[in-house]
UniProtKB/TrEMBL annotation:
It is an enzyme of class 6 (ligase). This is Dihydrofolate synthase/folylpolyglutamate synthase. InterPro entries: Folylpolyglutamate_synth, Folylpolyglutamate_synth_CS, Mur-like_cat_sf, Mur_ligase_C, Mur_ligase_C_dom_sf, Mur_ligase_cen. One of its GO terms (cellular component) is cytoplasm. Transmembrane segments: none annotated. It comes from Pedobacter chitinilyticus. The keyword Metal-binding applies. Residues 51-270 form the Mur ligase central domain. Keywords: ATP-binding, Folate biosynthesis, Ligase, Magnesium, Metal-binding, Nucleotide-binding.
Length: 428
């Protein structure tokens, strides 16, 4: 098999959550343990940092990877899902895994794959761990795929665990309350391993505190340690002043990720840097400042309040659950524009009514559906949206919806594209 045939084999042969949803989710670590054991447990050959949470874990992973890279660590980064290219999931110092490694890994492990019958995600995790070991990296940033306790990534023994926040998402698999979801996310808290929690929440704090106590893990809430005293968007940067609450230290920095929600993530990232320094990582302030100005360039991050073009201004964002869309709406409100055009598509297993209830009524909607099995039909989305006084036309592809929005928008208008990671993937 060549590279394209290999990737198609992975997509078609193995259960893939992003395409078919919950039935692809394996509720135990058996396959991953067996697969990695057959590979001589490559995940134990380098340092790791584990990052989970409902929203923000991707941005946080990329920011921390950029910082470690600038601090001269050979840094692996494992994230999911990808937007355009499968290889986005596995990077070293920002460079995607080689096509030859993907092809050779699958060819060599095909008998094992046929025997174990792992999911797409389980194979991808094992591939990442193996690649990082072969390339002799110093440290890997490992983003949790779904949940935490039973996620395939949760066989590592990290130097630091990070949980960005908790909101209601994937409730059909993780639970219907904040506390139930927090229990799953808390599964990445390990024995004698420090853990950073990004945000306080009255329903989740006790869950994290109890789990940390059971694991003898030192727990820190980032919000207790750092405070943003000012923030402003200037040019293509978010300029921030941050103060240490307990020690009074002041930090001024520029971040090339300009979404308002990055204010929460940056606190988590900076507190994580403090925790890493405390256990021996050599990270100079200069590395932090330089990295945060160039996260997108250093790591290849896309889809986070990303400007696609101007005149009219077109912005996309991968926010797709209630909390994520709330942040998107806030960003829209703070972005100067005349008319608002919303190119929106969703997948079936999201809390669609919660998202629709947040979307601005004073906008023209272009309802569409991404090209995957889990996609909610544009017609059904439009019908549900009508009950929230959201009106517009139905399009059967993202491309046609965006083309129509472009034809209708004037120079000072704003076109927003989102509702699903997969809508963004078809746009960038």
């Amino acid at each position: 098999m060549n590279y394209s045939q290999t990737v198609e084999y992975l997509y078609s042969r193995l259960p893939m959550f992003t395409r078919i949803g919950a039935v692809a989710f394996k509720k135990d670590l058996h396959n991953t343990i067996a697969f990695c054991s057959a590979l001589n447990n490559p995940q134990n050959q380098y340092k790791t940092i584990h990052i989970g949470g409902t929203n923000g874990k991707g941005s946080t992973s990329h920011m921390l990877a950029a910082i470690l890279q600038k601090a001269d660590y050979k840094t692996g980064l494992y994230t999911s899902p990808h937007l355009k290219d499968f290889r986005e999931r596995i990077r070293i110092n920002g460079k995607m895994i080689s096509k030859s490694f993907v092809t050779n890994f699958v060819k060599q492990q095909q008998p094992l794959i046929e025997e174990i019958e792992p999911s797409f995600f389980e194979v991808t995790v094992a591939m990442a761990f193996s690649y990082f070991a072969q390339e002799k990296i110093d440290v890997a940033i490992i983003e949790v795929g779904l949940g935490g306790r039973l996620d395939s990534t949760n066989i590592i023994h990290p130097d630091l665990s990070i949980i960005t926040n908790i909101s209601l998402d994937h409730t059909n698999m993780l639970g219907n309350t904040f506390a139930e979801i927090a229990f799953e996310k808390a599964g990445i808290i390990k024995q004698d391993t420090p853990v950073i929690i990004g945000e306080h929440h009255p329903e989740t704090d006790p869950v994290f505190i109890q789990k940390a106590k059971e694991q003898n893990a030192h727990i820190t809430f980032a919000e207790d340690e750092l405070l943003i005293t000012s923030a402003a968007k200037k040019s293509n940067f978010l300029r921030l002043n941050i103060q240490g609450i307990k020690d009074g230290t002041a930090t001024e920095l520029s971040l090339d990720l300009t979404g308002n929600y990055q204010r929460k993530n940056i606190i988590t990232v900076l507190q994580s840097v403090r925790a890493l320094r405390a256990i021996g990582y050599k990270i100079e302030d200069k590395a932090v400042y330089e990295a945060l100005k160039s996260v997108k360039k250093l790591t290849g991050l896309q889809g986070r309040w990303q400007t696609l073009s101007k005149n009219p201004l077109i912005i996309c964002d991968t926010g797709h659950n209630k909390a994520g869309i709330a942040e998107v709406v806030q960003n829209i409100q703070q972005t100067p524009h005349e008319q608002l055009h919303m190119v929106i598509g969703m997948v079936k297993d999201k809390d669609i009514t919660a998202v629709l209830s947040l979307l601005p009524q004073k906008a023209t909607y272009y309802f569409c559906q991404p090209d995957l099995e889990r996609a909610l039909s544009a017609k059904e989305l439009a019908e549900q949206a009508a009950s929230f006084n959201l009106s517009g036309k139905v399009f059967h592809s993202v491309a046609t919806a965006l083309a129509e929005a472009k034809s209708k928008a004037k120079a000072n208008d704003l076109i927003f594209v989102g509702g699903s990671t997969f809508v963004v993937a078809e746009t960038i």
